[in-house]
Design goal:
9 strands; nine-stranded mixed beta sheet; 59% helix
């Protein structure tokens, strides 16, 4: 699983807010949040580019630059208190400014991040949020009226959080300026530490939710090629039982499918694992808010159950399907390889039988040749022996024919025994 960190400095924003004078910590106020992520290889990105982009923003406001290799940085940007953090796949900017604009969720509040500066970002915008932070009125019904004006009622999710210290609300829809809107009504007397913790949790919920949805995009991308490979794998599996099928061609096709599925699994492993980790963080952050229902409306947990969890189940189902397809291709390949091995064993058996027959024929031919060789050798040996004994037999009046007749049996027996002895020696 990739190292999706629970950032060690995730409470730094809270501490920075708490360190400021109390008059600037209390609501009303405005907070803006921005997360930037590269399109590809985000976990292996050049983090020096992130620091350079942060430094460019600080230089615009005359703020001190971050330390080399910094993973978090906080400073003053005019009336804003800025907190920057570097995560595994993205960087986040959070800025808080006391005082409310003339109209709620004014896009001008996002002006601390200039458009030309955003245009040179080392990545694309992953999430951006506008926070409207107000004092909780005594008449809680008036909050409901404001929420009706600010958000889409069908998507509105709201709840009391942290033992009633605040009420949070959002419809999780992107406005015309490209930002998500969130409202926070804070109970009078709530300190900056608790306010900062609420803002931090909501930022984490949104950015982790958005990051986890990248897994859904990957799952949808894999759907079409997985369907094609599934159909081809089914066709090849059925063809294995058909008579006359070419096992070598089928095995080659199965190996190609297995390679494609393995490549898809390798390319998607990080994203699916990251999605699982982000999903767990979303639910954990919602849990620590300790929600209490507001006027019978759905809370964040119910909203995520309806809108977020089905997407995560789709990602998990795609990951499981990809693993099952790879297992099917592997089993089919193993089955076909076993079939090929059996066919080759039968061919080898026939080859061995043919070799046995040839060896038997060769042995018979050898015995025949040995018999002929005994006759040929005996013929010449008898002639030689005759010439050798003729000087003795001629004075005795024994003819050459009689001499050859007498010597022939002895020579033939001797040659036969010699050949047999040579054959036994080689055997």
């Amino acid at each position: 699983m990739p190292p999706i960190e629970d950032h060690p400095h995730r409470y730094a924003l809270v501490n920075e807010l708490h360190a400021r004078p109390p008059s600037k910590l209390q609501a009303p106020g405005v907070a803006v949040f921005l997360a930037i992520k590269p399109d590809h290889q985000a976990a292996k990105r050049d983090r020096a580019a992130d620091l350079a982009h942060l430094t460019a923003l600080l230089d615009r406001h005359g703020a001190p630059p971050p330390k080399p290799d910094a993973t978090h940085h906080s400073t003053e940007l005019g009336r804003h208190q800025l907190k920057w953090e570097s995560h595994t796949e993205f960087v986040t900017y959070t800025a808080f400014r006391p005082g409310l604009p003339e109209r709620p969720f004014d896009p001008a509040s996002f002006g601390v991040f200039a458009d030309d500066w955003l245009g040179h970002a080392p990545g694309n915008r992953l999430a951006s949020i506008l926070f409207q932070i107000e004092i909780m009125p005594e008449d809680h019904a008036s909050m409901d009226d404001r929420l009706q004006d600010w958000f889409v009622p069908e998507s509105l999710a709201c709840a009391y959080v942290l033992d009633g210290a605040a009420m949070i609300a959002s419809d999780f829809r992107i406005d015309h300026a490209g930002h998500l809107r969130m409202a926070i009504f804070v109970k009078p007397g709530t300190g900056g530490r608790r306010l900062g913790r609420i803002v931090q949790r909501l930022c984490e919920i949104e950015v982790y939710k958005t990051a986890s949805m990248l897994g859904l995009l990957r799952a949808r991308t894999l759907s079409e090629p997985m369907n094609a490979l599934d159909d081809e794998l089914t066709r090849l599996t059925r063809a294995m039982n058909l008579p006359g099928s070419r096992s070598d061609e089928t095995l080659e096709a199965l190996l190609r499918i297995s390679a494609e599925l393995e490549n898809m699994a390798v390319e998607s492993a990080f994203r699916f694992a990251a999605t699982e980790a982000y999903e767990a963080l979303v639910h954990q952050r919602i849990q620590v808010l300790r929600e209490v229902r507001f006027f019978g409306r759905q809370n964040l947990h119910e909203f995520m159950t309806r809108r977020f969890d089905p997407a995560m189940r789709t990602v998990k189902a795609t990951e499981a399907r990809l693993a099952r397809l790879a297992e099917r291709a592997m089993r089919a390949g193993q089955l076909l390889r076993s079939r090929v091995d059996v066919e080759r064993s039968a061919q080898n058996q026939k080859l061995l039988e043919s070799m046995d027959r040839r060896a038997d024929l060769q042995l018979r031919l050898q015995h025949t040749v040995e018999g002929l060789s005994v006759v040929a050798i005996s013929y010449y040996a008898v002639n030689l022996a005759t010439y050798m004994v003729m000087p003795v037999t001629e004075p005795l009046g024994i003819s050459k024919t009689l001499t050859m007749a007498v010597l022939a049996p002895f020579v033939i027996v001797g040659v036969w025994m010699m050949v047999r002895r040579i054959r036994h020696k080689f055997e």
